[in-house]
Every structure is written in structure tokens, then in C-alpha cells.
């Protein structure tokens, strides 16, 4: 399992494969977990989710961008997504990754790209979530949030439970709308828990802390053990349903997504779309090699 995870995470960061895949269209089964390659397809998917009582957080796929032109293109695309969310009046907000907007090129360049995005989203009352990436980009991401949140309050971020120091971060961002996840990247032992049991324990502590704090909490997991625990916890502590939501990725555990809606919980699906799908898809395979069955199904259905 460890070796398989490392293998897919290494592939997810392979620049040559990431670039090549942009020209392939959605392949290898990615079409099951990526909601199309353009805005029209994405909006159609969001409308379907909304009709089922599910809101969406839209990710115009892209990460680890090293060329200014590519980062500027990503910015324009995200601005177009914001416009489309507004024009179609769908129930959706934005998720983005700072490395897609040039964090590795220059901090200030990325800051200005983000400022433009947040300004436009703010005009339309649309929330923008800063996804958290690998450890090397974590502090610069928090620095960006600190600067931008001085001017805007439509920003939130993600806390990754595998880091030993995540409780300090959740305390620092206690007044923000936060998504809490286990963590998707490969991090060394001196920074992050490696065992599922330790990650799960810390994950629960973080979720409970933020829920009790009264700020909006997005519990982003496919793990029914965690979800069941949260259901009990919110009941015991009388935490109102409008103070939290469950989130899952597009294409995963659809029955459970609908079941939670049926039980009256707020639910938000993470909707990735676009040509830059390879890294995202490889991380999904790293998390759960059973996802390889998605590939098999796609191949045999052809
Ligand atoms: P896992 O630990 O992968 O699974 C636990 C158990 O749940 C499994 O053993 C199995 O019993 C069950 N299970 C899981 N998946 C399935 C399935 N498909 N079908 C049936 N049973 C299943 N990571 C980041 O680092 N940064 C981010 O910004 C970020 N954003 C995210 C946003 C969303 C909406 C989600 C859902 C995840 C995000 N992640 C992010 C990824 C996250 O960190 C985890 O890597 C990922 O969610 C896998 O962990 P898990 O909590 O789903 O459960």
C-alpha cells in the first residue's frame, strides 16, 4: 500500500506526464472523477448536483505552474468560472491552488493574481477557498491568506490533519470558514503522521475544535467512520446544521453523498474540471488503489 501510494504520488508530480496529459483529453478513467474539460460541461454538472440539493466547490484544475503565461491563463479561466457561476446563478463557490496562480514564480505575482480573483468573487458574493498543497507551499499560502484577508472576508482555507502542527493552524484561523481534510501529499515523518490511526485521531480533534468554535466547518472526507462520528458529535453538542457541511470529491461515493442530503445535512461536492487533470487523478489513485477499478470500468465500457 505504501509503495503504491508513493508510486502514484511520484507520478502526480511528474512534469512531463502532467504536460503531455493536457493534450490527451480526459483519459485513463479520469472522466469518472473530472466534470469535463470546459466551463459549459462543468456548469451542466453543477446544475445536476444543485438539482439534487448539493452545492459545489469548483476547481479549474491546475497546479505547480512555472510559466507566467500559464499562470495568467489560469487566472483568466478562474475569472471566467466566477462569471459563469454568477450568470447561471448556480449554488457554487471556487477552490483554487496558489501554485496554479504563480506562487513558484513570484509571491507578489501570485498575490496580485489572487487579488483580482477575490475582488471579482467578492463583487458577486462568491466564496473562494484556498486549497492547501504540499508542505513547501503551506506557509506562503497562509501568508497570502493573511495579506488578502486584511481586505476581503470571502476567503477560507484547508487544514490538513496529517501535520503535527495543524492544531496551531486551526487555532490561528479559528475565525475563518475552514475545510478540514486528512491530507493528500507525501510528507516526511518529521512533519507529519504516517499512520492512518494517528491521522484519523488528529482529524477528529481538529473537526471537533472548529465545530465547537462555532465557525463554519467543511468536513471533507469519504470515510464513513469519521462521518458517523461527526453526526453523533453534532447531535450531542447541539451544533446547528447550518454551521457545517460534508464535502466529497466529484464521482466518489455518490450514494453516500445523496444519503447525507436525504438526512438533511448540507453537502458540497468538489467539482474539478479542465485539461490539467493528471496530478489530481494520480493523487486519487494514491489515496485508494481501489480507484483503479474506475479505470478498468472505463476501459471495458468502451
Ligand atoms: P481515506 O483515509 O482515504 O479512507 C478511509 C476509509 O473510507 C477507507 O478505508 C474506506 O473504508 C472508506 N472509503 C474511502 N473512499 C472510499 C470510496 N471511494 N468508496 C468506498 N469507501 C471509501 N487534500 C489536501 O491535501 N488539500 C486539500 O485542499 C484537499 N481538499 C479536499 C477537498 C475535498 C472535498 C476532499 C474530499 C478531499 C480533499 N483533500 C485535500 C484530500 C484529502 O486530504 C484526502 O487525501 C482524501 O480525501 C482521502 O482521505 P479520506 O478522508 O477520504 O479517507
Q: Which term fits the overall shape?
A: globular
Bound molecules: flavin-adenine dinucleotide
- Major sheet: 8 strands, parallel, barrel
The computed structural class is alpha/beta
Rg over CA atoms, rounded to whole Å, is: 18 Å
CATH topology call: TIM Barrel
* Spatial strand sequence of the major β-sheet: 1-2-3-4-5-6-7-8
Count up the helices: 12
Binned strand content: 5-15%
Sequence stretches where pLDDT stays below 50 over 5 or more residues: none
Distance from first to last alpha carbon: 29 Å
- The CATH first-level class comes to Alpha Beta
Q: What is the number of independent domains?
A: 1
Number of E-type strands: 8
Mean pLDDT: 92
CATH architecture: Alpha-Beta Barrel
Helicity range: 40-55%
- Output the helix-strand order: HHHEHEHEHEHEHEHEHEHH
Give structural attributes.
302 residues; alpha/beta; TIM Barrel; 8 strands; globular; binds flavin-adenine dinucleotide; FAD; oxidoreductase activity
Summarize the structure.
With 302 residues, this protein is of the alpha/beta class.
Helix and strand arrangement:
Elements: H1 2-12, H2 15-24, H3 39-51, E1 55-60, H4 68-88, E2 92-96, H5 107-123, E3 128-130, H6 138-148, E4 155-160, H7 166-172, E5 178-181, H8 196-213, E6 217-220, H9 224-236, E7 244-249, H10 254-262, E8 267-273, H11 278-287, H12 292-300
Parallel strand pairs: 1-2, 1-8, 2-3, 3-4, 4-5, 5-6, 6-7, 7-8
The chain binds flavin-adenine dinucleotide (FAD).
Would you mind describing this structure in some detail?
The protein has helices at 2-12, 15-24, 39-51, 68-88, 107-123, 138-148, 166-172, 196-213, 224-236, 254-262, 278-287, 292-300, and strands spanning 55-60, 92-96, 128-130, 155-160, 178-181, 217-220, 244-249, 267-273. An eight-stranded parallel β-barrel has the order 1-2-3-4-5-6-7-8, surrounded by six helices. The protein is an alpha/beta fold and 302 residues long. Helix 4 (68-88) packs parallel to helix 5. The protein contains twelve helices and eight strands. Helix content is 49%, strand content 14%. Residues 131-132, 158, 160, 181-185, 220-223, 247-249, 252-253, 270, 287-288 line the site of flavin-adenine dinucleotide. Flavin-adenine dinucleotide binds at residues 131-132, 158, 160, 181-185, 220-223, 247-249, 252-253, 270, 287-288. It catalyses: L-proline + a quinone = (S)-1-pyrroline-5-carboxylate + a quinol + H(+).
